[in-house]
Amino acid sequence: MTQFIGIVDVSTGKDTSKQIGQSSGYSGFAIGNESGFSVIVTMDGTGHSKSLYPGTVDFFPAHEGFSGTILFKLLSKLNNISTWPSAFLQIDAVGVNERVNTSAYPMPLPRQMSVGNTLTTVGATAGNIQNDGSINGTSIIEVTPSGAASSTIVMNSDGTLTIKGDVAGVLTTLLQLIPGAAAAASSVRLADSTRRVEVLGTFLSDGSATFSTDIKTNTIRDNVTGVDQIDLATAGATVNNVLTLLNMLKIAGKVTTVNGATSGTATITEYMNGSLKLTQITFSNFRNGSVSNQDTATSVAWNGHGVILIDDAGWFAVVNSGTTATMNVLNTFNNPGTFLTQTILKGYQLVFILSAFNTYRFVANDTGAHNGSLLIIGT
C-alpha cells in the first residue's frame, strides 16, 4: 500500500538526502517538489537519477540495488527562488503490488504562486499580480518595447514606479514615484521639463505650493465666493503696481488689547506698518485711574509727520524711547490756523505729530470711563 515517508526541507547551497529505512518492499517513490529549486534525484545504489523540476511531482522507481537512501542535489536556476511560497520535498512510497501509471508523471502541482523569469499573457488575460513576502526593492513589473533604448514601465516592491512614453523610440518621463527621496526632495514627479501637466479638476494642496517658474493664468479667483478678483485676460495687464503698493503699505492687522487699570479695555489695531502707517485705538468703558502710565510698543517706529483724530478717548500720549513727544493741537481754523502745544491728549481734538515715536501711552490718573476711538495716520 502507499505510505507517507516524510518531508525534506531544502535551502540554497545545501544538498540533502532521505533515509527510507528499508531497501525492499517498494516499487518506487512519488516525490513532490514544493520549492523553486531544480532537484537531481538519485536512487542510491541503482545508478539511476533524473531531474525533479520546481512545482512538479514525479515517480522514481526503486530498481535492484537500491540502498534505501534517496539523494537530492539542489540547483538554483530560477531568479525568484526567495519568493517561492514554500521550500520542501514530500515523499510517498508505493508498494510493490500497487499499479502505477508511470506515463502520468511528471505532473504539475497547481498553486497560486510567483513564477520565475518571464510571464507572457499573449492571447490571454492576467487577472491580477500578487507578490507577497519578497525582498524590499524586488522588481514586480518591467516593460521594454521593441526598439526602445530602455524600460518604459518599472515597478518595484518598495513603491518605486517609473512610467515613460515611447514615441518613435524617444522616451519621455510621464510619472515617477521615488519612495527613498530625502526630506524636502521630490518623491513624486510628473512629466519632464518639456511637457505640461493639466489638472482637469480642482488642484488642492494641504501644504505650501512652490513654483520654480512663472504662474500663467488669466484670473485669480476668490476661494470663498468663487468670484474672479483679478482679471489678467486683457493683453498687457499687470499687477506689479498692486504688489508694489501692498509692499509699501505692509498691511498687518495686528491687534493688541490693553486692560484699563480701573475698568474696560483699549483695543489697538495696527492696519498698516509700511511707508504709510495707520492705527486705530478703540475704547470700551476704558478707565486708567491708577497712578501709573501703561505703555505699549508700536510694531514699527513712526517717523513723525502724522495726524491724530480723537473723540471720547482715554488720556493718550506718544513716546519716543522714554521721552514724551510734543504735539500741536489745532486751536482755530484761521488761515493759517493756530495751535496749542500739548504732550497729553484728553479727547475731541485734531492733532499734528511732528516727531518720531515708538510707544503708545495710556496716561495715568484719568478718572473718566471712555467709549470712543482714536485714529493715527502718518509715516
Task: Outline the structure in words.
With 379 residues, the chain is mainly β. The chain has 4 domains: 3-108, Immunoglobulin-like (Sandwich), CATH 2.60.40; 139-190, no CATH class; 220-249, no CATH class; 251-378, Sandwich (Jelly Rolls), CATH 2.60.120. 3% of the residues lie in helices and 44% in strands. It contains 1 helix and 28 strands. The strands form 6 sheets. An 8-stranded antiparallel β-sheet has the order 17-18-19-28-21-26-24-25. Strands 1-8-3-6-9 form a 5-stranded antiparallel β-sheet, with no helix packed on it.
Order of helices and strands: EEEEEEEEEEEEEEEEHEEEEEEEEEEEE
Count of helical stretches? 1
The strand line-up of the biggest sheet is 17-18-19-28-21-26-24-25
Please state the average pLDDT score: 87
Mind telling me the CATH class of the largest domain?
A: Mainly Beta
Structural class by helix and strand composition: mainly beta
* N- to C-terminal distance: 108 Å
CATH architecture of the largest domain: Sandwich
- Give the radius of gyration: 44 Å
Q: Proportion of β residues?
A: 35-45%
Q: Spans of 5+ residues with little confidence (pLDDT < 50)?
A: none
Largest sheet: 8 strands, antiparallel
What's the structural domain tally? 4
Q: How do the helices and strands line up, and which of them pair or pack?
A:
Blueprint: E1 3-9, E2 16-19, E3 26-34, E4 38-43, E5 48-52, E6 56-61, E7 69-75, E8 88-95, E9 107-108, E10 139-143, E11 153-156, E12 161-167, E13 170-177, E14 188-190, E15 219-221, E16 228-231, H1 240-249, E17 251-259, E18 263-273, E19 277-287, E20 294-302, E21 306-310, E22 316-320, E23 323-324, E24 327-332, E25 338-342, E26 349-353, E27 357-362, E28 373-378
Antiparallel strand pairs: 1-8, 2-7, 3-6, 3-8, 4-5, 4-7, 6-9, 10-11, 11-12, 12-13, 13-14, 15-16, 17-18, 18-19, 19-28, 20-27, 21-26, 21-28, 22-23, 22-27, 24-25, 24-26
